[in-house]
Structures are given as C-alpha cells and as structure tokens.
Amino acid sequence: MSAVMSEQSAALEAAFQAWIDRGDKVESQDWMPEGYRRTLLRQISQHAHSEYVGMLPEGFWLTRAPSLHRKCVLLAKVQDEAGHAQYLYSALESLGVDRDAAYQELLAGRAKYLNIFNYPALSWADVGMIGWLTDGAAIVNQVPLSRSSYGPYARAMVRICQEESFHHRQGFDLIRALVEGTPEQRLMAQQALDRWWWPTLMVFGPPDADSPHSQQSMKWGIKLYSNDTLRQKFIDQTVPQIHHLGLSVPDPALYLDPQTGRYQSGPIDWSEFRRVIMGEGQCNQHRLNSRRESWEQGAWVREAAACHAAKQAGRSPRKEAEHAE
Amino acid sequence: MPNELSTWEVFVRSQNGIAHRHIGSVQASDSAMALQYARDVYTRRDNFVSLWVVASEHVISSAGQDLVAWFETAHDKDYRQATYYPVPQGVQHL
Predict the structure, then answer these.
(1) How far apart (Å, rounded) are the C-alpha atoms in residues A25 and A9?
(2) In chain B, whose CA is at the least distance from the CA of A242?
(3) A95, A158, A194, A273: which could join A250 in a potential S-S bond, CB 3.0 to 4.6 Å?
(4) Is B50 within 8 Å of A27 when comparing Cβ atoms?
C-alpha cells in the first residue's frame, strides 16, 4: 500500500517538476509537493516579517527628519513597508497559514527576518543608506522573484517592486543632498556607508556553497538566481553610483576586473552574519521588544474592533426584520 | 419576491500566474448552481483554468463614499513616485 502511494506521489512530483520546467505557474488550489510548500512558507514568511521589522529602524527617524518634506517622504516610505508586509502576509495566507500564527512566531522570536534590520540607524544618513542600499538590494533580489513559480508570491512582488523603486531613489537623493552639503554632512554620509555596505552585501544570504536550500529552490522556480549571482549584480550596479557621489567603498580589496568588467569584492565576514542571526546583533533584542510592545499597546484597538463588530452583528438582524416589514 | 435566486459575481483566471478578473455575474439559488451557471454562461469559448463565484451581497463597495476625497491619494504627494527624484547624468540602475 505505501509502495503504491509513494509511487503515486513520485509520479505527481515528476508531473509537478515538468510543469515548473515548462515555466507554468502554481496557484494556491493546485497540488504541490510538501517540500515546495514548506520552502515557500519559509521564504514568504521571512520576507513578510522583514518588511514589517524594516519599519523599525526608519520609524525611529520619523520625528527626527531634518525637514517637513523629508518627513513626508519617510512617512510615505514607512507606510509602503507596512503595505508590503500586508501583501506578503496575504500570499502566506493563500498557503493556508493564519496571519496571527505567523505573527506569533515573530513575536516569540522564532521567525527569521532580514538580518540587516538588527543594525541601528545611528544618523540621518543611515536612513538614506537603508533606502539606497538595502532597498537597492531588495530590488535586485525581488525583480526576478516577480517571475517566481508561485503565482500569489510573484504577483505580490510586481507591486512591491514598483514601490521599491521610489524607496531606492529617495535614499540616493537623501545621500546626494548630504554629499553636496557641508564637510560634516559629507563625513556623515561616508560613515553611514561604512556601516551599511557589508551588512547589505550579506542581505543576499550565505555564499552558494553554504546555502543548502538554494539549489532546490531554484529547481522549483521559487528562486531564479543564486545568492552569489544576485550579490555580484548588486555590487556591479552600486559601486559606480558610490563613486559618482565621490564616496568610497569600505573595502580595500575591491577592484574592477578588466577581463570581466565586474567588480571583485574582498572577503565577507560571514562569522558576523552568523553571530547576528543567532541574536547577538546590536538591535535584535530591541527589535523584539519594540514588536512586543506595539502588539501589547495595540491590544485595546483589536478588542474595540472586535467589540464593535459583535455589536453591529447583533444589530443587523433586527434592522433587516424592520426592513422586511 | 417569487424569484428566490440571488446574484453571484463571477471571476475567471485565464492562466496560472495571472490573477482572477471579474467577468460578470449570474443568478443562482446556491453556490453550486452559481458555479455551474458561471461555467455555462462565461466559459463557452475562451480557455480558463479557474472560476470563482462570490455572493454579490458579500461584496462591500466603495459606492457612497465621496469619490474625489476617497481616491485622492497622490495629487499633492508626487514624492511617492520614483520619477519625482532626478537621476544625475551618468548614474545607472537607479
């Protein structure tokens, strides 16, 4: 009996793989291998949580922006991040996962999110770096994901990428204003770049050789390019932008390979990456506390909404009855 | 009312990867009948891979809102657009 079943599931999996290989998309009602579903859950939940946690370092600067205009821009960006989290939690729900359950995982400190948000935004220039570098990295990562094999995820990504482009440019614009300003402002920009460059390169995840899930993810069309490929693309796109602003990349080993026309980066300190992921970054605990605090402080809103809904539901039958008379 | 049928909104997906789109509505007495009718009414020629029906009474509409105020999000907020920010000459991939 189990032999028959495993034969059946092998046939199903082969048909599924052929479907993916043809470039066809998978929708929520379609059969999918358990591993495919699990991989999607891991990736989409990490992605959704990242959008949400990503609001925290920037949110701190909302009341500290240097002008009303910059404040409006930052407010719009942070609002977008909340929206991105919503799109992605919706994609997660299409796989039958309850949003509250996913959220509780985050509040319990078990769910993963982008490591970079465990770093502090120390100065106004860091806000610019998050937009220009971190969202720039997100674009490199997400544009291919809008062709991901899972329909709801791919569609969420199309919308996110359009908005991400505004984030990227406002960040560059903010840094440009600083480098065109006083020597102190210029220094502030350089110091922020020094802080954010390496953590941004780590956003793409561990090197291909140490990324156990990558190959299977690519075979399933969940991911389209490997971590190292995307990281290299980001470096090649961003280094000339940095040079254009007259800033320097904090990597003494970086050089342009005349043979390939691509930048060769110095070694990335992956021990730091692992240390921060394990919870020992500067802000891991702080971010966790902020999330718990807002969850607890928002409890009365959830209670009031539920109370109002119950009250309305209690009223409507009477109203309808009146209407029928 | 002698006619006890209710209205159901019909959504079709032409191929996987593309979201369902609203195509029209049908009258039916229950969800099974609505799905059957939707198939008969809307899928006779085009190729679709999925159909959704939703009871029209469950569709919450923005009708009744002040249209201008409701959708006026971007008029004075053009800084939300990427194109608002000038890209210096020679800078690429921004």
Answers:
(1) 20
(2) B91
(3) A194
(4) yes
Q: Please name the CATH architecture into which domain A24-282 falls.
A: Up-down Bundle (1.20)
Q: Would an 8 Å CB–CB cutoff place A94 in contact with chain B?
A: no
Contacts of A138 (CB under 8 A, 6+ apart): A164, A167, A203
What's this model's pTM, rounded to 2 decimal places? 0.90
B92 within domain boundaries: no
B93 part of a folded domain? no
Interface of A with B in 226-285 (CB under 8 A): 237-238, 240-241, 244
Q: Which residue of B has its CA nearest to A234?
A: B93
Q: pLDDT per residue over A155-181, tens digit each?
A: 999 999 999 999 999 999 999 999 999
* Residues in Cβ contact with A277 at an 8 Å cutoff, skipping those fewer than 6 apart: A112, A115
Domain containing B44: what range? 6-83
Residues B2-47: tens digit of each pLDDT? 568 999 999 999 999 999 999 999 999 999 999 999 999 999 888 8
* Residue B90 domain-assigned (yes or no): no
Alpha helix segments (H runs only) across chain A: 2-21, 34-53, 55-59, 68-93, 99-107, 124-129, 135-145, 151-179, 183-202, 214-219, 227-244, 270-275, 284-297, 299-324
Residues of A in contact with B18 (CB under 8 A): 151
Task: Using an 8 Å CB-CB cutoff, list chain B residues near A155.
Answer: 17, 19
Per-residue model confidence as pLDDT tens digits over A174-229: 999 999 999 999 999 999 999 999 999 999 999 999 988 889 999 999 999 999 99
Q: Is residue B21 part of a domain?
A: yes
Residue B82 to residue A168, Cβ atoms within 8 A: yes
Q: ipTM score here?
A: 0.84
**Contact call for A26 and B90, based on CB within 8 A:** no
